[in-house]
Amino acid sequence: WQFIFTPVSLAESGVVDMYLYRIQLGALGAHASWTQGVAFGGIVGSPGTADSTITIAAHVTKDCWGSIDGNTYCWNPLPVFGGIASFSSQGPRRDGAQKPDLSAPGFGVASAKSTLYPAPIQLIVPDGVHYVEAGTSMSAPHVTGAVSLLQAQVAWQAAGPAAIKQRLTSTARADANTGVTPNAVWGFGKLDVQAATAPPMIVNVLHPPKGSQIPPGKPDSIQVVLAGGSADSVTFSLSTNGGSGYGIPLGTLYAVSPGPPRTLAWSVEHSMVTFQAKVRATAYTGPTTVTGFSDSLFLIQLTTAVESEEVSAAPTFRLSANAPNPFNPVTVIPFQLPTRGRATLRVYSIHGALVRTLVDGVLAQGPHKANWDGRDDRGVALASGVYAYELIQGEKRLSRKMSLLK
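Predicted structure:
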């Protein structure tokens, strides 16, 4: 057949798109093909043109194979091993969008054979239950399997089409056959299931540790370790309100690889003093970001000196520092009474509200200890923060502060 096109509303430089609906014509199955003026680009068709569709090219992974009849057969003509399949449609999409997205094995795939399908014996491999096939109907299931493996991971179960496609294309590999990617033949390269389903990058901030106290006015350090991938950079910031905001930049490490911890030195300023310090680390790899945090809260406070007291034979009225401090979940408060009598030991919020009554009764003269488990009088666990505790006996009062960290 010969088709003649005469420009009517198009300029002579216009483009006419023609598609072969079927390549086999007539009872004899003769193959039809265009013979003049063929441009192989832009032939990706529906449904591969859809935005949310992952459009898969096919490449050669088997050029010859052993058959169940004991012979070895090869494709004719022999394809380039690892090269693009002759039937793989090329992009881009007609509006210029990148298509295909990536390539997967599709030329020379030993696929499961239905018992009802009379496959030619030359194509049946020695196990008798698979036969060699070719087509994008072979390459597409490879990607379907990769998506299933990816979504079996908790981190990817809620991911949408765009995120899944980005993961597959960003981990696709290039080689001598693909050339520089992305391109209109290979998309972003060859599917790499191992890279795509590898655990996502994890950021762990090792230092400062939970409950530590860092004095202002001195240098300190932050230690971070990566797992699951390398980062172009890791940026650190400080929160002084328990993680509600991270408005204080601390610095950046570059080219961070998995393995041994990396250390960032930082200057601890007096303006950073807080009982609720927390560090955030954000790792950047291309468009991907992963965030990690220090292990709960730490303090930026001046070290409290231990007061020395005269030791006398007679007991004195004394309220000692709780230990441990900061604490989680239980701390011990030592105190001492000079005489037998009624005494109270109560815990208050930093705003003065009564939280817990630990002692309220007549006690003997001498030393005592009270435990506090970080709960109020109703048994409700309290939030991290600074709390005051006060000892009263008669007209005598003593109070101190303590820090609950979770």
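Summary: The mean pLDDT is 85.
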